[in-house]
Automatic annotation (TrEMBL):
Domain (Core-binding (CB)): residue spans on this chain: 19-140
PANTHER family, A to Z: PHAGE INTEGRASE-RELATED, TYROSINE RECOMBINASE XERC
One GO process term, biological-process aspect: chromosome segregation
Cross-referenced Pfam families: Phage_integrase
Protein name from the UniProt record: Integrase family protein
Domain of life: Bacteria
Domain Tyr recombinase: 162-372
Region (Disordered): 38-58
InterPro entries referenced in this protein's UniProt entry, alphabetically: CB, DNA_brk_join_enz, Integrase-like_cat_sf, Integrase_catalytic, Integrase_recombinase_N, Tyrosine_recombinase_XerCD
Keyword DNA-binding appears in the UniProt entry: yes
Provenance organism: Chloroflexus aurantiacus (strain ATCC 29366 / DSM 635 / J-10-fl)
Gene Ontology cellular component annotations, sorted alphabetically: Holliday junction resolvase complex
């Protein structure tokens, strides 16, 4: 816990106008890393419990650190060393520079021989700028900058690229894909059987619950099973550390039962989905591996569909990712007449407005069908 104790100590440091931007960034990141934790019980809590208490997930903090590192590099190149040097105009200029990509963001970009620099996508520009407001809000609260963040935000927002409204793509029918790993393709050794049962359990869990891949891969055995029985409801901490419930239907329960039985029902604190390859065997399955399991099955099934003369369906399957299961659950529930508010809870969205924005195009089609079915027609012509 020495590293975390150092983080606690750093997070207590005050900010002043003379504090360097680089040092201030380290203090802000230390505060994010320690938010929600109590340094008095360092030795009493296991690492998993501490991660659940932490207000910000490690990947989130890592993305903020990347954004801040790029800003600090830009600021120092432009003669802004301390917090007191920063002005609103600097933030506006930085946002414009990101849009133009008029400087090297990384060593990789600097090493390009032909000096070509790709423009950053609109979402990447927003991802680099958004964390700065949280960083500067801390400096503002301690009087370390000469402007108010609330006044700077609209000025910076004016020069940011406009983002398209998020819309969930219409997913292909995944009811055949989810059973891809259910049956062996031939004679199996033990490791091959375990791998197949794990892959089948993952697909069934995604199909049943609409879980995010990070939520599924973050589960432990004890999260889904008690006394060798699969739970019908699983509590997870999803995006933004919001607590939600995954619903395990019968087909997913059976797939998980077969998988855990083959693993001889490991201890509750063991990861649910683990790697079986010799190099990383026993460790938690990575996000990349989870994607490969899904896309590998989708592409193999797509090849079969081509032979069956279903080229259009095959093309849709080649675009499947783990998140496609989530969209499929949302669209299927709406198609069955489930309300947006209920779908929002099942998918664990932040609010029903998020669900409405993602499935707006579907709602319009549904409203059109209702309108066509129930609207009045004019009287027939009188003869």
């Amino acid at each position: 816990m020495d590293e975390e104790q150092a983080t606690f100590n750093l997070s207590d440091q005050p900010l002043t106008p003379t504090t360097s931007i680089r040092e201030a960034g380290a203090i802000w990141l230390a505060r994010l890393a320690s938010a929600g934790l109590d340094d008095d019980d360092d030795d009493e809590l296991d690492e998993r419990t501490r991660e659940r208490q932490r207000h910000h997930a490690r990947p989130t903090i890592a993305s903020y650190e990347t954004a801040l590192r790029i800003f600090v590099r830009w600021a120092e190149r432009n003669g802004r060393e301390c917090l007191g040097d920063l002005q609103v105009a600097d933030l506006v200029a930085y946002a414009r520079a990101l849009r133009k990509r008029s400087y090297d963001l990384s060593q990789r970009a600097a090493a390009q021989a032909d000096n070509r620099r790709e423009r950053l996508s609109e979402r990447t520009v927003h991802a680099y700028v958004r964390p700065l407001f949280g960083f500067l809000a801390l400096a503002d609260s301690q009087g370390a900058i000469s402007f108010r963040v609330a006044a700077a935000r609209p000025e910076v927002s004016r020069v940011l690229p406009r983002l398209p409204d998020p819309v969930a793509p219409t997913p292909p029918d995944l009811r055949r894909l989810v059973r891809f790993y259910d049956k062996p393709q031939g004679e199996e050794r033990e490791r091959q059987m375990l791998t197949r049962l794990r892959n089948a359990a993952l697909l069934h869990l995604l199909f049943s619950s609409g879980a995010r891949i990070s939520e599924a891969l973050g589960l432990d055995v004890g999260d889904v099973a008690r006394d060798r029985r699969i739970l019908p409801r699983v509590i997870v901490r999803g995006k933004g550390r919001r607590e939600g419930t995954l619903f395990i239907r019968r087909h997913a329960e059976q797939a998980l039962q077969r998988y855990l039985s083959a693993r001889n029902w490991p201890p509750a604190r063991e990861p649910l989905f683990i790697a079986f390859d010799p190099r990383t065997g026993g460790g938690r399955l990575s996000r990349i591996s989870g994607w490969r399991i899904v896309t590998g099955a989708a592409n193999a099934l797509a090849d079969r569909l081509v032979w069956e003369g279903k080229a259009d369906e095959a093309e849709l399957l080649r675009q499947v990712t783990p998140h496609t299961f989530r969209h499929f659950v949302g669209y299927h529930l709406l198609n069955e007449g489930v309300s947006l508010a209920e779908v929002s809870q099942i998918l664990r969205h932040r609010s029903v407005e998020v669900t409405r924005s993602f499935y707006a195009s579907y709602a319009d089609v549904q409203l059109q069908e209702v309108h066509d079915q129930f609207s009045a027609d004019p009287w027939p012509d009188e003869e």
